[in-house]
Amino acid sequence: MRIDKTQISGVQFMFTVTCFIQSSSLLTAFLSEITKQDSWLAVLFGVVVCLPLIWLYRTLMVMFPDYNLIQILEEVYSPVVGKTIGISYAWFFITLTALNLSDMGSFSKLTLMKRTPDVVLIVTCMLVMAWAVKYGIRLITQYSALFVFVAFSILIASVLLVLNQINLQNFLPMFDLPAIKYVQGTHIISTIPFGELVTLLMITPNVKLTRRDTTKYLFGGFTLGWITVLVVISRDIAVLGNTLPIFTLPTLVTLRLVNLGEALSRVEILFAIMLIMLLFFKITFLYYVSVITVAQIMKTKSYRHLILAAGALITAYSFTLYPSPLHHAASAKEITPILWTFFEILMPLLTFVIAKLRKLPKEKEV
Amino acid sequence: MIPRRFRLLAVFLLSLLLMIFLSGCWDEHELHTLFIVTGVALDESDDPEKMDITVQIAKSQSKSSRSGDTEPQENYIILLKNKSGTMMEGLMEFNRDSSRTLMLNHNQVLLFGSSLAKQGIKDHIDLFMRDQDSRMEVLMIVVDGRGEEALAAKLSQDRISGMFISRVIRTMSSVSSYYQVRMLDFVSRLLEETTSPVVPIVTVTKKGKMEEIKITGMAVFKGDKMIDRLSNDETLGYIWAMGDVKHCNVVTSTEVGKAVFQIIKLDCKRDVKIRQDGGIGVKLSVNTTLSVGEISGFSETTSEELMPYLVKIAQEEIKRKIMNSFETARRLNADIYGFGTSVYRKYPKEWKSMKDSWDEIFSDIELNVQVKAHIPVTGQITQPLGMKEE
């Protein structure tokens, strides 16, 4: 049984992955505060650590090409246990959506609209997203290629614009921080942007790809994504140097410093465009995944009547998640990465092992 | 299914909603409701708990007044002053007592009166980093005397002194980026802890009815407190030691004649080493391309000897200036060059033990300057008038 019957192509799938990771490249403060001038190293470590993880996701996708994550869980752990775990996943997805939504609210407030109450921004965006979710995954992912293209253009332009302010000395000294910081940084980068790709397991049935193509597009998308993150972080380190850790939005500060003659300055609007665009995509995708998860658990035939209810829940949730941005930042550094590990690494791994032991999926009788 | 008509209506209503809300009516900035701030000056106040804040606002011009320079300067700027403990309180007070909202986005310069700078400025600049409207690229300047004088100055060259100062500094930054000290650079040096920030210092002088603002060197900070200053001459030595200089003059004069060179490009490579005895040795290799700007005298010199001789005196002069500035820095015990940071970047492990005693290590640094000059261009004439022919 498939809830959303629309199909997406391999390229769309790839750009979805890229876009998903790119959207995290804007909010790098949680990393730069910890690993400072070596943040780019943490990104590279994170990539290395995540390669097996992505391989795990890919394997689950290939093993159960017609099942989404909840169906896999029910298949592997028996319906009752599977549903229970599924509910925890529903909570996880909804929380992720709400987190990103509150990020979008607070950061657009910080960059664009100072006095506008964020409820207005959030509710309006949520309505548009609900509309997108209604039309299914195909519509959502159709835009990913465009977004990736725009994001890359802005990225390249921004690097060129700050070229005169880059100081490579800022990367030195390397490996000077205590080892534990690198572990912490790597853990954060692997769970927050990269590990969140676990959400892809919810759209497996909508992606009809061969084994080889799944690998190709998943890793292709991942590579484009991490390169973006790496370039963004390296650029910010090179420009800001030792002041990097003190800023909430290093990228914004970097773009504000652009000054090529009188004409080419004040280009931080580029950051705002990228922020709104990419976060819009990510939240829509997460929103869609949350709705599908809930629908799957409830075994409803159509998910559309759930959209507005889930949207309202997510909106309210995003306002009550953290009492202040400080709490948010602290938890992004200390609590969330540990908690997310369960959903992103342990659970998929356990599922994979048990599925292998029980020799699932059973060969279908033809 | 929902009838088509209702769908259309829904789409229409949704678009209307988006139009109204996404345009962000709360954040409208209409020009006639704003005061565009072109300069902020902070000064010591008679109340030790407070500071004097002066804000310079560029007045929007009415088209009819085109009589030119005879108009009093009051017509172009508005100065707002108050006394408050923190910058935020000051801004609130300004906004309360004025008909428009102050807009800091276009603030050009942040001036500190020298007496306030001597007390320390760290506590006063937080807002300029935190507030989302202000920018890290705002220029920091120390004013000899009181900062408000610089903002109130009537200049013959420019109507708005804040703009004037920022333009002068930006022009100088084409010589070397170290002339232009942005908030970011200052903060970065403060965070380095051992590096002493330097900030351009300007002096306001009376000249008839008008005033003049001149750059008179660099204020040297130790931590966030100003301790002394470099003269313009010493500033040159500092700038050259930092490298990446373009379009700058080297003036030399000997018994036989005078020569002025233009620096086309000057690079300075820095190499720090830990000496046997635990101290630090710094080697500066200056590599520069000069062109002859002006020569007078040298009538006793033959034209073959002239070029090597000019190279020699240029090299000596550059070296002398660099050493001169370094001696001043050593006397002040202020690491204006960021040698400490270079050591940290090269020897991060050893640095940990050096950091706390950096003041003593710095005053014991062995500086070795090597200058290599090339003079490929002599200008449009090859030799000065009246030189001996072979």
What would you say this structure looks like, in words?
The complex is a heterodimer of chains A (366) and B (390). With 366 residues, chain A is mainly α. Chain A has a single domain, classed as Amino acid/polyamine transporter I, CATH 1.20.1740.10. Chain A has 15 helices and 2 strands. Chain A has helices at residues 10-22, 29-35, 39-63, 69-77, 79-111, 118-134, 137-142, 144-161, 179-194, 211-240, 250-256, 269-298, 304-320, 325-334, 336-357; strands spanning 259-260, 264-265. Chain A has a two-stranded antiparallel ribbon with strand order 1-2. The longest helix of chain A is centred in the first third of the chain and has 33 residues, at 79-111. Chain B has 2 domains: 32-60 and 74-230, no CATH class; 243-390, Nutrient germinant receptor protein C, domain 3 (GMP Synthetase, Chain A, domain 3), CATH 3.30.300.210. Chain B has helices at 4-22, 87-96, 114-119, 126-130, 147-152, 161-172, 183-191, 232-242, 303-332, 339-346, 348-354, 358-363; strands at residues 34-44, 51-58, 77-84, 101-103, 109-113, 139-144, 198-207, 210-222, 225-230, 248-253, 257-274, 280-297, 366-377. In chain B, the strands form 2 sheets. In chain B, strands 1, 2, 3, 4, 5, 6, 7, 8 and 9 form a 9-stranded mixed sheet that branches. In chain B, strands 10-11-12-13 form a 4-stranded mixed sheet. In chain B, strand 11 (257-274) and strand 12 form a beta hairpin. In chain B, helix 8 crosses helix 9 (303-332) and helix 10 (339-346) crosses helix 11 (348-354). Classes of the chains: A mainly alpha (366), B alpha/beta (390). Chain A binds chain B through residues 110-117, 120-121, 123-124, 127-128, 131, 169, 172-173, 176, 240-243, 246, 253, 256-257, 259, and chain B through 14, 17-18, 21-22, 24-27, 129, 132-133, 135-137, 182, 184, 187-188, 191-192, 344-346, 348.
